Amino acid sequence: MTGQGHKAGAALAIAADVRAGRRSAVSVVTAVIGDIEARDTRFNSVTRILGPAAVAQAEEVDKAVAAGRDPGPLAGVPFGVKDLFDVRGEVTTAGSIVLRDNLPATRDAEVVERLRAAGAVPVATLNMDEFAYGFSTENAHTGTTRNPHDPARLAGGSSGGSAASVAAGLLPFTLGSDTNGSIRVPSSLCGVWGLKPTYGQMPLRGVYPFVASLDVVGPMADTVEDLRAVYGIMAGGLHMGEPDVGDVRVARLGGWFAENISPELAAGIDRVMAHLGHDRVIELPEVARARASAFLISAAEGGNLHLPRLRRRAMQYDPATRGRLMAGAMLPAATFVQAQRFRRWFRGHVHAALANADVLVAPTTVGVAPRIDQPSITVNGRTVSARANLGIFTQPISLAGLPVLAAPLAVDGLPQGIQLIGAPGGEAKLFAVAAELQRAGLAACRPIEAGYARKDS
Amino acid sequence: MSSAAHLSPSAPAMTGAGGHDDRKGPPVADMARIIGLSIPAACMPDVVANTALLHGYADLVSGFALPDDCEPAYEYTP
């Protein structure tokens, strides 16, 4: 990995410059658009550039600054959204041609609306697995997003465009969604910070659904500071009082979460635990069944959502998505209900574990990003599909609905990441630990070339 | 999550396109008909494979005894 992250937070630095009149919002936005046009051909993270609308909004930000009005805490900060967030004036495709004839959105998704009100400027929509059903961002309609740290490798998914555009240094922050790991997996493989908030916390109005029982939206960013700032605005102006990290009880997840991971990743987790001064290991029960339940609930709810369209125009779907959705639509009710009952059971045991720790540390994936031409990983000695199994450590946590902060370990070579898992509503403790790991140099996002930080615009 | 190779519990062998002749696995064509879904022939192998995958996971979850008062988590609060 090359390049440096921005300790102060790239988004916050841009906003400070725009608010102080050192840079204009228009110059920032036009430079970022130019950078995307010049460099994203290597990564394929962006699906649409929102040029005229973005420049028009940037002009309004500059007018506010010139008039002495408050342009907002994220004044002039460009950002991108996974292509399932409504952006007014644009058709929300959810990564598919199936929805391309829909009318353009008449208003922003609620979280986009909040960010725009804070002065941030949406400049691009970002690539994803079709309908968010995958861990690889290999899309038959829009192509494969490549990992900026090695374009021969997957970026992960389904919010792959959101992670890759931050890792490439094209955008300081982006929005993604996470049903089974779709923020955490690409954040890990691309080496960026990501947050899956507590299930039910973020408004989902204007977000194309996938699995109502599990869907969450959240930010991805190049620093903890930016992640915190964007999360607070997305959550409606939340100001967290973060605890002293020394008061946060941290434990490591064992069992399922200690198996199959690369030696480098295991060593990274060892360093994190040693630095934080905790050696407690906690094992959650029946993790394989928790993962299976998340898998089944996703298949059933996703399949049901798409059944009317699958009846009429199945062949428009990405072949990698179509078969899964059809199979899910046919899942017996008894299976779906059993999975939902298991979820209730698992919740009780997760809460019991969280009585002994505030933050649980676990790997996000088994190792580094798989090669695009060899999309497999090794699990229990078997070579299995990466697309299917990149989420083996994220899906069980999704079932419980817990908040998770995806932290990129500061490692030589390709990125690897960990999950900082909290109790429901425990995001502040996650940020306290993340900030300490960043401060200590144990976790870091290293964009390959932060074009938005140039001040010659 | 994929349509192809997977890490999953053992699933019944799937040999064909479903229907009455397929006695070794879920009757995919019949299941589709019940919900008004017509599966194009070109898609059938993938749907059969994914159905087998899901049934393997279903077997895993169904094999766990839950107390009768454990309700489904439809209105879930983490």
TrEMBL record, chain A:
Keyword Hydrolase: yes
Entry protein name: AtzE family amidohydrolase
Superkingdom per UniProt: Bacteria
The keyword Metal-binding belongs to this UniProt entry's keyword annotation: no
SUPFAM superfamilies: Amidase signature (AS) enzymes
Record lineage: Bacteria, Pseudomonadati, Pseudomonadota, Alphaproteobacteria, Acetobacterales
Gene Ontology molecular function: hydrolase activity
Listed InterPro entries: Amidase, Amidase_dom, AS_sf, Carboxybiuret_hydro_AtzE
Annotated Gene3D superfamilies: Amidase signature (AS) domain
Alphabetical UniProt keywords: Hydrolase
Annotated Amidase domain residues: 28-430
Automatic annotation (TrEMBL), chain B:
Region (Disordered): 1-27
Pfam family, one: AtzG-like
Cited InterPro entries: AtzG-like
Biased composition (Low complexity): 1-13
Superkingdom assignment: Bacteria
Protein name: DUF4089 domain-containing protein
